[in-house]
Write a structure and sequence with these properties.
The protein is mainly β. It has one domain: Sandwich (Jelly Rolls), CATH 2.60.120. It contains one helix and eleven strands, in the order αβββββββββββ. Strand 5 and strand 6 form a beta hairpin.
């Protein structure tokens, strides 16, 4: 068990260093590890960040890391949104993590599969301030084994050179 935790910690640190060194479009990214026995339905992951630029188009992503032993080909989540102007919303999202053939989508490294899933493309936050997003798994099981990490990412949308 301790070897698994050390391997997970080493992989997370290494991946973070690689991503930080070559990621100029990132405005915000935070990833949370999930409990060793899986993602509990009441373990809501919270992401807060400040937006001051209301003109630049942004892309929003959900990051999900699973093991190849994850039992499902999809993942349902509730996304709670709270904007600085008081707007609040709850969306249900479905992410397809594997093909019907069983082939994992995303990037695989050994027994770990990483998915960076675009949920909003080219949008703008119209009000400066603090934005809060929360993720809760919405699967029928109370605990989802083999979910390793869950995260949220905001990046500047790359503009096509014309």
């Amino acid at each position: 068990m301790k070897v698994k935790k050390l391997n997970r910690l080493f992989f997370t640190v290494l991946l973070s260093l690689i991503l930080i060194s070559c990621d100029s479009n990132k405005l915000y990214e935070e990833n949370f590890a999930v409990a060793d026995d899986g993602w509990h339905h009441d373990d809501i992951k919270t992401f807060e960040f400040d937006i001051s630029d209301t003109l630049s188009p942004l892309n929003l992503y959900i990051n999900v890391r699973t093991s190849t032993d994850y039992a499902f080909s999809n993942l349902f989540m509730f996304l709670y949104s709270n904007y600085p102007d008081g707007y609040a919303d709850k969306d249900t999202l479905e992410f397809i993590l594997a093909e019907p053939s069983g082939e994992w989508l995303g990037e695989s490294s050994g027994t770990v599969v990483e998915n960076k899933i675009l949920i909003f493309k080219g949008g703008r936050f119209t009000t400066p301030g603090t934005y809060k997003f929360q993720l809760e798994h919405a699967m029928r099981q109370k605990v989802l084994p083999e979910i390793l990490d869950v995260g949220f990412r905001v990046e500047l949308m790359e503009m096509d050179p014309a």
